[in-house]
Design goal:
With 221 residues, this protein is mostly helical. The chain is built from twelve helices and no strands.
């Protein structure tokens, strides 16, 4: 029996090398390997799960003993997987996974908040153009973790989209207070200040017309 099983497994691997080439094995897509039952609930809609190693796992399951050796993903592994989904443009699927993970934490009465998870929730909402909800998510993060510059910066970006430049500037000031070397926030601050200056020139009427044109040229560069 063991010899038969070994031969079958060898045939499976040989066929995979022929069909997919060595490059598909070399990438070692371990993030898409077998998930525990509780993690399958979270990532049920991850379209990338149907690629690569999942097909291999199904083939091996059919010829291997039925013992489940999978383990639940850690909190950091879950957020990393969701991060990859967002980076791949799967905002809706990522948000679904986030909401399921939040519900899972609540059902277990887990203490504290998962700051990384909530930050990704804001990103997903923004990508789906649900900007008011993204603002609410980032605002909550600035309460839960005011020492982190990223939520303040992303909150400012949402305000900029809505033309709320003064509020964006205040959020960026908080981001830079948390980390004076945060380059993204400093660049955004420069952009906000130029936009505020442009508004001031426009408000000055005819006297500021020339400066308004100069500022617009700077903004277009």
């Amino acid at each position: 029996m063991n010899q038969t099983l070994n031969r079958l497994q060898a045939c499976v691997f040989a066929s995979l090398f022929i069909i997919g080439g060595i490059s598909s094995i070399a990438h070692a897509q371990t993030p898409h390997s077998r998930l525990s039952a509780q993690d399958q609930e979270i990532f049920a809609n991850d379209v990338q799960e149907d690629r690569g190693w999942k097909g291999l796992a199904r083939i091996l399951d059919s010829i291997s003993p039925g013992a489940d050796t999978s383990r639940p993903l850690s909190a950091s592994e879950i957020t990393q997987r969701i991060q990859r989904m967002l980076d791949a443009g799967q905002a809706a699927e990522a948000l679904d996974a986030i909401e399921k993970r939040i519900a899972q934490r609540e059902a277990r009465n887990e203490i504290g908040s998962d700051v990384q998870l909530l930050f990704l929730q804001g990103r997903a909402l923004s990508a789906l153009k649900r900007h008011d909800e993204a603002i609410a998510a980032y605002q909550q993060l600035t309460i839960d973790a005011p020492e982190l510059p990223e939520p303040w910066n992303n909150l400012a970006a949402e305000y900029m989209r809505q033309g709320k430049l003064q509020m964006a500037q205040e959020a960026l000031e908080m981001a830079l207070a948390a980390d004076p070397n945060y380059r993204v926030a400093r660049a955004n601050m420069g952009e906000v200040q130029l936009m505020l200056a442009n508004e001031s020139f426009k408000a000055s009427g005819q006297l500021g017309q020339n400066r308004t044109q100069q500022t617009q040229q700077i903004l277009q560069q």
